[in-house]
Automatic annotation (TrEMBL):
Lineage, highest ranks first: Bacteria, Pseudomonadati, Pseudomonadota, Gammaproteobacteria, Pseudomonadales
Pfam families: Copper-bind (PF00127)
CDD domains (alphabetical): Cupredoxin_like_2
Coiled coil: none
Protein known as: Cupredoxin family protein
Signal peptide interval: 1-19
Keywords: Copper, Metal-binding, Signal
Entry-linked InterPro entries: BlueCu_1 (IPR000923), Cu-binding_ET (IPR050845), Cupredoxin (IPR008972)
Chain ranges of the Blue (type 1) copper domain: 41-164
């Protein structure tokens, strides 16, 4: 019985770290806007980001102000290629989704825990709206920022984020 308790304790300790319900990723974690050392505006267009690439420094906390100037709902999602693939599957599986037109959706309608929107690395922004995401980058890693609304990533709505 002691071995079972020890094994369970070790298993729980090996799970991802969560802060305020947000997952800690290898490349960093969500942060309060008050900790930001720099603010970067990211404009979402149909189907593009401005700027097309971003550079940050390891240890830097960046406040992203995400402005949707497009006619479609878009995401700003930080992650590696594998994370984007998984998130795209989650987005496609959401009930009642109209591919490419998520005009009536917001995070409260999406159901936390099953689509990646409660982990702090993603904001969904409706047309004409803005949102913020603040992130502390911990170490260099191959990261992208992307829109994972079905079809948008594949259409080129993805950019490289370099952590120096």
């Amino acid at each position: 019985m002691k071995h079972l308790i020890l094994a369970a304790t070790l298993a729980v300790a090996s799970l991802p770290v969560f802060a305020d319900g947000a997952k800690t990723f290898g490349f960093g974690e969500p942060a309060p806007a008050s900790k930001a050392t720099r603010t970067v505006d990211v404009v979402l267009k149909d189907i593009a980001f401005e700027p097309k690439s971003l550079q940050v420094k390891a240890g830097e906390t960046v406040r992203f102000v995400v402005i949707n100037e497009g006619k479609l709902a878009h995401e700003f999602n930080l992650g590696d290629k594998a994370m984007h693939v998984e998130h795209q599957k989650e987005m496609a599986a959401m009930a009642g989704m109209d591919h490419g037109n998520m005009a009536g959706m917001d995070h409260s309608q999406m159901g936390h825990g099953d689509n990646g929107h409660d982990q702090g690395n993603t904001v969904l922004v409706q047309p004409g709206q803005r949102a913020e995401l603040t992130w502390t980058f911990r170490k260099s890693a191959p990261i992208e920022f992307a829109c994972n609304v079905p079809g948008h990533y594949q259409a080129g709505m993805v950019g490289q984020l370099t952590i120096e």
